[in-house]
Amino acid sequence: MTRQHLITACILIAAIALAMLGIWLIQTPQQGTSESADHLDRPSSVLRSATPSAAPKSPESQGDDDDDPDTLAAPDGGLSATQARELESAAKAFVTSYHRRSFDDPEATTWLADATEYCTPEMAHELKTKFSSDGGLQWSRFVEGRSTTAASIRRTTPSHTKHVAKGQATLIVDYTVSTRSEDPMVAASDTTFVRTVDLVRTDDQWKVSAIANLSGEPTA
Question: Which residues, 6+ apart, have CB-to-CB distance to 1 below 8 Å?
Fold first, then answer.
């Protein structure tokens, strides 16, 4: 082999060696990069366990969102249970005291003292003006016959209640009035009344402002 052929062979061997070295160097970082990328693509179990989830509300926190159904107006715009009870109680108290009479009352107008407690000052004045008589012979006979008169409420029905929040309402009260007496001329069988009772709210209480007949005739 000549000197020129030897040089050429060395150059070829060196070139092949360099090429192989270059290929090895290139492959080594690519494998490392692939592993790193694969690692990032897989969610870490630690990260999953640390991810916060929505905590359920406690009974206390859930209670903060609830409305008291007993103190608010009903969803359909009607009366709440509390409002209905207050109105019914006020109407019943007035109607029963308005009709109550007893032979052992000190005087014929004793019932007025009770009735006026459940109505507005204006209506109280109207009642006192209308029923200021001492009862005369009728009252005397009522007492002699040991008579009593009482109202029995059969039902109450809300009529106009859309202004309850403003302190105004009307109830229809269905009731009977009976008079028991030892004097057959004084005794009276049950008389049915259906009346509208208007109420207004004053001083945190419902008071009757008017009463009107839908049927029957007043006994007082």
Answer: 9
**Residue 67 DSSP SS3:** coil
- Sheet containing 168-180: give its strands across: 101-102, 148-160, 168-180, 188-202, 205-215
CA–CA distance, 83 with 86 (Å, rounded to integer): 5
Residue showing tokens 């029995």: 152
Four-CA torsion 56, 60, 61, 62, nearest 10 degrees: 80
pTM: 0.63
In sequence order, what are the beta bridge partners of 194? 174, 215
In whole angstroms, give the CA distance from residue 141 to residue 16: 143
DSSP state of 55: P
DSSP letter at 100 equals -
Give the span between the Cα atoms of 17 and 149, in whole angstroms.
129
pLDDT tens string 141-183: 999 999 999 999 999 999 888 899 899 999 999 999 999 999 9
Residue with tokens 């004793």: 110
CA–CA distances in Å: residue 152 to residues 76, 130, 173, 194: 31, 24, 10, 12
Degrees (nearest 5) of the Cα angle 173, 175, 176? 160
